[in-house]
Amino acid sequence: xxxxxxxxxxxxxxxxxxxxxxxxxxxxxxxxxxxxxxxxxxxxxxxxxxxxxxxxxxxxxxxxxxxxxxxxxxxxxxxxxxxxxxxxxxxxxxxxxxxxxxxxxxxxxxxxxxxxxxxxxxxxxxxxxxxxxxxxxxxxxxxxxxxxxxxxxxxxxxxxxxxxxxxxxxxxxxxxxxxxxxxxxxxxxxxxxxxxxxxxxxxxxxxxxxxxxxxxxxxxxxxxxxxxxxxxxxxxxxxxxxxxxxxxxxxxxxxxxxxxxxxxxxxxxxxxxxxxxxxxxxxxxxxxxxxxxxxxxxxxxxxxxxxxxxxxxxxxxxxxxxxxxxxxxxxxxxxx
Length: 336
Hints:
This is CGP-CTERM sorting domain-containing protein. With 336 residues, the protein is mostly beta strands. Helices cover 11% and strands 49% of the residues. It is globular, with a radius of gyration of 23 Å. The two termini are 12 Å apart.
C-alpha cells in the first residue's frame, strides 16, 4: 500500500503546473513600447503596443527594422487592471464568407461618446490551408461593466468624442518623463491627455547605433512600464507590463556577429485577463475566462467577469488533476 501511494505522489509532482503569469517570448535587439492613458474620469482605457526590432545588414552597415509587434487594450477602474481579449467578440462578428482564424488585432482608435466607450478594431482573418486572408475593420461600443461589445454601423472619422480627462476618481494621471519622446520632455511628468508614451529600450549600448533616437539602457533584470497616479502627497504606480531585461545572446549580419538582446515581457501578477464577448439582451451566470496558458475555460461568475488566477502560485491541471482523482479512488479501495 505505501509503495502505491508513493508512486502516485511522485507522478503528481512530475505533472507540469501552469503559471498564471502571462509571458510573451519575443527575443529582440531593441524593444519599442507605446501607450496612452485615456480617462473618462472614473475609468481608463490603455492602448498598449509592444514592438520588436530585428537587424538587417548591407555591404557597409546594419540598421534596425520592425519584425514583430503586439497590441493590447487594458482597462483600469481605479483599483483593478484588466487585460481585454477581443478574440471572442471578433470571431462572433466575422462575415460568413471569411476564414474563422484571426491574428494581428490592432486597436486603431478609442473615443468616449455620450457616456459610452467606442473602439475601432481591425484584425486579419486567414486560412492556412488556402493561403488566403483579408483584413477586417469593426467599430464596437464597449460595455466595461459586463466586458461585452456591440458592433455599431458608424463612420469612425466624424464620430465626435468627449475630451479625455487627466484624472480618475480624484487621482491625477501622469506619464513619467522618461517614457516620452524628446520633444515632449519639458518636465518630470506629462499629463496623459498629451501625446502618448513612446520609447526605445535596449540592454546593450552598442545596439543603439541602429536607430537615430534616444534609448533607455537597462542594466537590471526587469523593467516596469507604468503610469503614475497622484493625489496630494500620495503617489502610486500602475504597472502595465514588465520587460524581461535579462540579456540573451543574439546574432546578426553576414559574419554572425553577436550582441545581447531582450528575451520578452510579461504582465503583472494582479492583472485579470477577461474575454470580451458580444453583448446579450439577457446575461447568463456563466462567463468565459482566458487562462494565462492560452487555454479557454469556463467559470461560474457574475456576467463576463473572469476569476483568472493572477498570482505566481502554480495551479494543478491536466495530468496532475488525473493523478489526484486516481489517488482518491485508490485510497477508498485501500480503506475498504
